[in-house]
Amino acid sequence: EGLSPRPMLGLLHLAKAWALMHHRDSVHPDDVQIVFPHVATHRLQLQGDNGHGRKPAVFYTQWLTKIPSEI
Predict the structure, then answer these.
(1) Cβ pair 31, 65 in contact under 8 A
(2) Is the pLDDT of residue 67 over 80?
(3) What angle do CA 28, 16, 40 make, to 5 degrees?
(4) What is the DSSP letter of 20?
(5) What's the pLDDT at 8?
(6) How many Cβ atoms from other residues are within 10 Å of residue 15's Cβ?
C-alpha cells in the first residue's frame, strides 16, 4: 500500500532536519534512508513472514540499505 501523503511530508521534513543537523543545505538519499524507519515503522505493517521475525525498524533499515543511494 505504501505511505500516504502526510507521512511522506513528515519523511521529507525529517530528512531536511537531519541534513541541517549535519551542516548541509540539501538532502542526500542517505538522509532519507536513515530517517525512513523512524517515520514508517508504525505505519507500514509487515504481513506474514516477510520480516523473517525481525522488528519492523530493523527490517526497513536492512531493506533500505540494499537500495543504491547513487541516483
Answers:
(1) no
(2) no
(3) 90
(4) H
(5) 84
(6) 21
CA 31 – CA 14 distance, rounded (Å): 9
Note the pLDDT of residue 35: 87
The C-alpha cell at 43 is 505505519
Give the chain's length: 71
Extract the C-alpha cell encoding 23.
551542516
DSSP classification of residue 61:
H
CA 39/CA 32 separation, integer angstroms:
10
Q: What is the pLDDT of residues 47-60, one digit of tens each?
A: 555 545 556 666 66
CA distances from 34 to 11, 13, 30, 49, 68 (A): 10, 13, 6, 24, 13
Q: What share of the chain is helix, strand, coil (3-state, %, to 5)?
A: 55, 0, 45
